Amino acid sequence: SPVIRLRDYQPPAWRVESIELEVELDIDASEIVARLQLRRDPAQSLPLRLDGENLQLLSIALDGRALDAEAYRYDGCVLEIDGARDGSMLETRVRVRPAANTALEGLYLSGPRESGFLLTQCEAEGFRHITFFPDRPDVLSTYTVTLRADRARFPVLLAGGNPTGAGELEGGRHWARFVDPHPKPSYLFALVAGRLEHLARDYRTADGRAVQLKIWAEADAIGRCGYALDALERAMRWDEQRYGRNYDLDVFHVVATHDFNMGAMENKGLNIFNAKYLLADPDSTTDDEYRHVEAVVAHEYFHNWSGNRVTCRDWFQLSLKEGLTVFREQSFSADMNSAPLKRIEDVALLRRAQFPEDAGPLAHPVRPAQYSEINNFYTATVYEKGAELVRMLAGRLGADGFRRGMDLYFERNDGRAATLEDFLGALGEANGTDLLPYLAWYGQSGTPRLRAQGHHDAARREYTLKLGQHAPGNAGPSARTPLPIPVKLALFASDGRMLPLQLAGEATDAGSERVVVLEQAEQALVFTGVEAPPVPSLLRGFSAPVILECDYTPAELALLLAHDPDGFNRWEAGQLLAARAYENLRDGSTDTSLQAWCGALARLFADDGMDDALLADLLTPPGEIELAEREGAVDPGRIHQLRQALQRTLAERLGADALEQRYRTLAARRSIALDAASQASRRLSRRLLELLEACASERALPLAAAQYRDAPGMTDRLAALAVLARGQADEGERALADYRQRYAGNALALDKWFAVQAQLPGLAALPRVMRLEKDAAFTLHNPNRVQSLLGTFVRANPSGFHRADGAAYRFLTERLGELDALNPQVAARLATAFNGWQRLEPGRRALAQAAIAELAGRAGLSRNLGEIIGNVLN
Ligand code: DPP
Ligand code: ZN
């Protein structure tokens, strides 16, 4: 399939100033009339070409005259029309088939045909499945949308923009009209029609606009929308206060669906959410999921400015809206919850999802240079690494400077389709500085490495810290070093105090923490007045998305783990030490990392002043995927066993009695309260139960059974279920059966039931997954269900998926074939599980390669799956 390249970008030859859409909605066949007011770029002479896929063309008229067949050509992808002029009005009438649309792109049906509702998903290129249009983000138009449908079957009719009228039609039909005065690209268009209920709240923006907030869901779910509505209000206030951004329409609708390819979608004035990120109640939602709901509600709302008012010139600039909006969302979540815990969660995600992506065959720059299917680029790199790049810039400018820069960016680009250069330009200009060197970060793939080496000169009372950087092997041809790398650092004395930082040649000391931007390949910092060898705490708060190489001794890491007041770096020291402890076990090496790690954690465990949630995170070693990143030839089965052994060693050091006692104290005050302390206590209680499971499962299992039975909410219930399921005794099967029945009608809770079992380690997983595929509730048609069972198995269960016999590889390729025929986006995402196969140990590598090559050789793969498989194989 054709490759699209950033360097080939051309402005549109034809624009659409305004569009009027009239939609006759019906489950099987909907008809769409579109009237486009065309503008022609006088500098270009290309004929009028419009995108359109799977459209049944009924009629076409230019400036009021019906066109006969010689005047246009439609090849199934592009409609080319003769005779259009600047100012022409084009009218097309097409038919589409919502109920037959299993790809969930364009107009489709959510739920059963008798009771489900119709909705649209247009990002990135879904609008061309609805009507003929220049379906690219730099064509901005005002939209007038009229919906018509049977009133009994579709009582609620919604589209983006302000409602301007509604009424009755003959034959039990009705209509509703919406006008969006803000020019927008087609990917932000949306409509919804069906039987939905709503929860409403009046909101007044800081600049005085009265807004009606409405959250829509099906009747059985409307009672679970209250938390999202509160979160939306918090997000709106926060964006007013932190960025001075106000909402700009009279209504803001949010709709929940169970059938959605993405997490959620920021359509102007009509956000559509995967129910997973909108519905919440204590009986079926975990603490982590509550935080995700809050974060995603905020994320989509924040897009109203970072994405909608200022959109992207082309899809290569996707991170301009996504990286920036993830950063804004992360800052909001940090403000609403605990900032250090949020940072730990985000960096852990980056390492689990983005670092492996960036190190393997699917690696791409935050601004890719080319793609054949844009839907394959909604990746951890574009989102999470993109957010890290914005965070670096924000840190570089400081809070006030960053706000100044953002104000200028929004003001200058409002109503425009912008580029990353526009973003860096505005941030820099507002602060009188040149940020363009940071563009290099956007143009190359791979995770850079930062080397740090310290030397203490006792006679001169000086400490020299040498910093150096090198690009990873896969940085690509356009890689530029050096990159600007902000390194936030501090120095610790051996008693755990932070030292004042006095750089040689500087008049005043700069406190005990500072940011040094490494702008060269190497740089030496000389600190004066340092009596004894200090311990450096580097990249504090993870100030740059790099891999740190520093020869810490176990004792130095233990010191930081014990004393660093930066919660993130304290955790980071523990992670480094745990990874080294893991190597002790793996290699039989004899340095003291394992004792140092266990000893430091034992002291923290005994310290009553520790925050429960931070302690839970400190007691968790890096995950199996992260540990695999440190191996030459990856054997996921062995990594699983070694990590288990590591946890057992820690648990034994803490002691089963102490673990159980602390667990019982926390269990005694179980509740469903959502305040930080209650959440922290649930988080620690779960971790303690897991550690007890590691060192004394015969004691953990009865506690888990009781916890499952008595749990007041989902967080405790699911934690217990996971322990019981791994225990594989009758008790586990009983709990699983109980849960299955209890939540038979609750799709989101059932997803967790599938996921827990898909995570069973080792050889037990594949037969379990295959058995679960036969469950009446399993279907390949629902993305959440596919993700919960198959996605969890292939992407979050390395020891289960990477069986030595290769059976799971062949299983996956079979399912990919079936899925690809239904929903190419979901198939392509699942296929990324093969990323990293080149680094497997030789036996698994050969089996994986054979399975992937067989799939790649099949005829008729979608562009989505074809691109992923092709790239993975290279
Ligand atoms: N809906 C997706 C998101 O918000 C893509 N825009 O990230
Ligand atoms: Zn987004």
TrEMBL record:
InterPro entries: Aminopeptidase_N-like_N, Aminopeptidase_N-like_N_sf, PepN_Ig-like_sf, Peptidase_M1, Peptidase_M1_dom, Peptidase_M1_pepN, Peptidase_M1_pepN_C, Peptidase_M1_pepN_C_sf. The keyword S-adenosyl-L-methionine does not apply. The keyword RNA-binding does not apply. Residues 227-435 form the Peptidase M1 membrane alanine aminopeptidase domain. Residues 446-550 form the Peptidase M1 alanyl aminopeptidase Ig-like fold domain. Keywords: Aminopeptidase, Hydrolase, Metal-binding, Metalloprotease, Protease, Zinc. Its cofactor is Zn(2+). This is Aminopeptidase N. It comes from Rhodanobacter lindaniclasticus.
